Task: structure prediction
Amino acid sequence: MINLAARDILHNWGKFIFTGIGLGLLIGVTLTMAGVYRGLVDDGRILIDTSGADLWVVQQNTLGPYAEPSSLPDDLWRSIRTIPGVAQAANVTYLTMQVRKKDEDVRVMVAGIAAGGPGTPGWPPHLVAGRQITRGHYEAVADIATGFRPGDRLKIRRNHYTVVGLTRRMVSSSGDPMVFISLKDAQEAQFLKDNDAILMQRRRIRTDPAFSLPGKPDLPEAVIALQTANNYVNAILVRIYPGFALEEVAESIRRWKRLTVYNRAQMEAILVGKLIATSAEQIGLFLIILAIVSAAIVAFIIYTLTMDKIREIAVLKLIGTRNRTIAGMILQQSLILGVIGFVVGKISATFAAPLFPKYVLLIPVDSILGFLAVLAICILSSIVAIRMALKIDPAEAIG
Result:
């Protein structure tokens, strides 16, 4: 018995292959969009996972430090360290900004980390090149996605920093690569005003009658020194001893220090559920629409390929070919086309993912589900095409 699917593929292999490639590119776009969605969610979680903290202590009644501004005195960590169950407490600052790389700008999140070393909350947990920060000023560790290399110089505000180490997959919730510098440098970059603003502020204070009190000539200078000091951080990262309950330690900090405290689950809910929720929902909706369009196009291609063989199917029916054989041929061709399309789509998505400016996370589960979805669409489309083919009147089709 003639195999109609094999005959059609052999005699029209160019058309069939290019149809499979076109279908595969469409499937690849769908898989890539799924990876963009998962990458967006993963970016929101990676900052939490790599911070090394069990609790985040922030300004009272704020969602800081990632979702909104938070400001705390930088000496508050000492009193938090004395609370039972607290093993480590470290200051940290975060500031998203443009840094200068020679003649171009790079958008990064600058993280200010407290003195300590690897293992201290806030420090990059691993390096792929170079070393960690060992000096108190003008050294930086950058994520490899910034394009920096060990020995490069970058400019943050008015100061220049030397990149001494590189890390990987250290990004903000919006996918911006991170640059780590010392806490003092970060405080200066975040809170220090420019020279003109400082001069105007000093002039106002010195000429303000409220600060020109008899017998207190040093008062204006003391006020100026207080206002220009950079004694604030965005959050305190806390790590607790094993055996202590997170909520008990957090409640002690809330009660005695009158601060807001978040655990890992709460911080993840803020990042994923609030900060990137709108973007994730938008990409998710676009993914659903793209999947529906892809399914419709797959169905249309299979239906068109079947209807192009009406005369061949009519001849087979005239010579007594069973309906089951004709249905098997149509289904076979549809499944082959689906497999070719998925293989091309998977390969294109894999090679295209690193080219995106933000992280695209392709996981095996999505590939398996995508493959099963393609097969299901091919089978359902084949059923429709088979029903139409079996209704063909051989006399009308040939005549």
About this structure: The first strand starts at residue 55 and ends at 58. The mean pLDDT is 83.
